[in-house]
Design a protein that fits this description.
53% of the residues lie in helices and 3% in strands. The chain is an all-alpha fold and 342 residues long.
Amino acid sequence: MQAKQDFYYSEANQPHPMRAKAMLQKYPNIKELYGAEPRTLLVILLIVLFQTALASFLGIAGFAKAWWAALILAYVVGAFFNHATFVIIHEACHNLILGPKILNRFAGCLVDLVNIFPSSEGFKVYHLRHHAHQGDYEFDADIPYYKEARIVKNNFFFKVLWLLFFPIVQALRPLRLKKINMWNPWIFVNLAFNLLYAIFLTKAFGINAVFYLFMSFVFSIGLHPLGARWIQEHYTPEGNPQESFNYSGSLNYPSLNVGYHNEHHDFPYVSWYKLPMLREIAPEYYQTLVHHTSWFKLFFEFLTQDRYDLFSRIIRKKEGKFGVDDDFENRNELVLAKELEG
């Protein structure tokens, strides 16, 4: 199959706001699911304590003697814990852990410690725009660069490298978004937290502790079956107009229901814990949507099949200020603009 040379284009608004509006008209009790989920704090503490303990053990063992053990454990154990941290960071940026925004920012910074590379605050800046401007090349950092997609093409080796270095790819994408200012005081708070934590681990237990956590971070969003999540969410080999895709496999449990991606985009103020309840209330809106049943299968399909490449994304030809149009009546009643102002 000849490699595509451009993205799929759509003149339609993104599908989530109109579906959410229809669902609320039919099931107004969905509003009862809105709000923070404080139990996420317990998950944060368990992740930070477990990963710190394992990192400490590997640090004491020493880099020279146990770097290989750190690498293996990062792939088969740590990646799953660090993947969950990104789901929690995602919850924090929607203020779904605790009520006050400032407490959610601290919660995001806390769980971000075990990623070593500070991600929480940078993710917050761009993720909210992804919701409000889904498919807008000028605002949606989830969309690859044109040059990025043209370089990778359908080449197996380049796809492997793209996933391996996906953390770097993600860090560079915001440079394209000239209309968004990333820098704010919380970026430096996030950086300071992670730097101090890394220094503490190195001084107390040795560099292998930091190496384990950093590789857990790299594998959690890169060259790992968990990395298929980034393909699952918005990549389509045929330009399917639904644009967002769910994952229904067993890894939803350690990944805190992140596979309920359509539900989340429809109602971004429903926490990870209650997304299955949302589906139970209105199953008819999701049962007919195309979804993925295995990240492992999708991981290998992306690497080996020509029908998946970085151009397998839908972007908007025309849109208004908020990614659908300038009429708030046609958007989620959740009004992401309030988040953008915060």
